[in-house]
Amino acid sequence: MNKRKRFGEILLEAKVVTEPVLQLALEKQRGSSKRLGQVLEEMGVVTEKDTAVALARQFDFRTVQNLAGYSFPKEVLALFSSEIALKKNLFPLKLDQKTLFLAMVNPLDMDTIDDISFRTGLRVVPCVTTPAEIQAAVHQHYLGGAPSESKEPESDWWTILVVDDQELVRSAVIAALRKEGYETIEATNGADGLKTACQRHPHLIISDTIMPRMDGFEMFRALQANNQTTRIPVIALSSKSSAEEEAKLLDAGYFDFVAKPINPVRLAARVRRALKAVYGTTAPPPKP
């Protein structure tokens, strides 16, 4: 059994998609940070469940669901942080002696499986599930409840998340935003930014690209892979102000780019443009 077969080939063999549809999806995926399955879902061709079932049938994997409704031992959950679970789309299910049963969106990701096996010394048995199942389980078992159960009060105005490891930069951005009347929340690295975005669902994210623990690119890819955050526009901050850097960030899927040092007038204009383009309203839409 060849577990390194490409995902598109599996969907073709399972007759979930046709060759023309697959080629169109691959074209749409090129240059973005989205999974092929996510692109197909956005095209309305398949559902998350379709892709999970296709993988399970093709390779005789077990499927798992309702992960948020079960309880899991602390020692099992401690194998991964919430940011790794969200970034890699996986969730630890059970330890049986030297075997780890692991829920995964992509059980063919042998690099991740090999890395986990090497790091933990455990044999990994993948089980198939959907991104929504992973996200619900992470919120329930790592983040203390569903996103709507945030302990912090909800704002009735635009909420913007600022992610940067440099305090002076964060302070400058936040000051410029608050002067315009926006509500702000902040994080000091990509891992905390990802967790905060999943918990608070800001209307816009402004993020540095180079940070410790999880950089801005990794955070952005994880946000794009998460159905609950994929539509949040992200403006990149970078100390590199070249045209090449701007082109790279825009091609990667960022909504916009602002060079450091921060110009408050330019930043405010880019923020207004992003909110109007994405939401098209003068008042914030309800949060999920």
Mean pLDDT: 85
Largest sheet: 5 strands, parallel
- Domains counted in the coordinates: how many? 3
Beta strand count: 8
The CATH superfamily of the largest domain bears the name Response regulator
Strand content: 5-15%
Low-confidence stretches: 147-155
Helicity range of the residues? 40-55%
As an assembly, this protein is single chain
Shape: globular
CATH class of the largest domain: Alpha Beta
Question: From the helix content, strand content and strand pairing, which structural class follows?
Answer: alpha/beta
User: Which fold name fills CATH's third level, the topology of the largest domain?
Assistant: Rossmann fold
> Helix segment count?
13
**SSE order:** HHHHHHEEHEHEHEHEHEHEH
InterPro entries: Bact_response_regulator, CheY-like_superfamily, Sig_transdc_resp-reg_receiver, T2SS_E_N_sf, T2SS_GspE_N
Organism: Trichloromonas acetexigens
Pfam family, one: Response_reg
Protein name: Response regulator
